[in-house]
Amino acid sequence: MDYINRLQNDPATEPHLAFLSVHGYTQNGVNPGGNRDQMADYYDRIDEFGKQSWQTEASGFGPSEWLASNGDGAIWISRAIHEGLVYGNHNAWLYWQMTNGDTSPTQREALTSVSGGVVDTDNPKYAAAKHYFKFIRPDSVRIEAGIDDVTGINISAYLNEEDQTLTIVILNMGTSDEFIDLVLPAGMDLSQFEMYRTNNNETFATLSPLLVNGSTASFNMLGSSIVTLYGHYTALVPEPASALLLVVAGGAALMCRRGKMRGRDLH
Q1: Half-sphere exposure of 46 (CA within 13 A, CB side)
Q2: Helix (H) or strand (E) holding 130
């Protein structure tokens, strides 16, 4: 923070400081790092500057399996993205490389591997990132969505008023299934969500649409899985009535608006 503070407080450099760029590593510059407490502390320190924050480089995480007992499976990149967006309030979250030409499915420095010019889109780590990258489009606004449990259910949600879409990403770091209730206000006219899931047995599987009954929808969330819900709405009442309510495993939290997201499509 000393470097950022010096640039921010120097009248010669501050006008040229358009946004902040950080990396997602531990102090050795190699291993993935930055837990939710560290991300929250970072955001508290930069909030007063009023500048966007981009996480522009992270790598690591084992790509060959979804869930590893040592915290190195592909599911952990989902939690890293979640913690960066939710606790660090990053406006962008980028992986180090999409691919570096390495044909090994177990290589760690890229999001996936390439063989014969063909990208491996079945790679678990690629799928984990896709749950966020494909649907959270530029100009989306993150809206608060707890419940949030580092070892259980983790939720983030993103509203794009230009495209009139709502994206909800739910990550279950626990091994037990959880029943999820979603409650939307009457002011949001949304009839169904597209639904995608990745776990130890499925790689970005397209599920049956999740229907919204009036203002509610519910489903069973498998243990050690990630689900993305993506829906188009036709009406949204003005704030504050436009806030959304998620009820998860008996708890509830009101959503509120955050800064716009940067992003790019991942097919």
Answers
A1: 26
A2: helix 124-133
Neighbour-count burial of 255, counting CB atoms closer than 10 A to its CB (0-12 exposed, 13-18 middle, 19+ buried): buried
Q: Phi and psi of 186, rounded to 5°?
A: -60, -25
DSSP conformation letters of 55-107: EEE-----SS-S--TTS-STHHHHHHHHHHHHTS--SEE--S-S--S---TT-
Q: How far is it, in rounded angstroms, from Cα 110 to Cα 133?
A: 15
Report which residue type is found at 256.
Answer: C
Three-class secondary structure assignment of 192-251? EEEEEEECCCCCCEEEEEEECECCEEEEEECCCEEEEEEEECCCCCCCCCCCCEEEECCE
pTM for the whole structure: 0.85
Q: Would you say 174 and 152 are in contact if contact means Cβ atoms under 8 Å apart?
A: yes
Per-residue exposure over 118-137, b if at least 16 CB sit within 10 Å of its own CB, e if not = eebeebbbbbbbbbbbbbbb
Query: Mind listing the pLDDT tens digit for each residue in 22-74?
Result: 886 665 555 666 678 888 888 888 888 888 888 888 887 776 678 766 667 88
Closest by alpha carbon to 66, among 172, 157, 149, 153? 172
Q: Which helix (H) or strand (E) holds 259?
A: strand 257-260
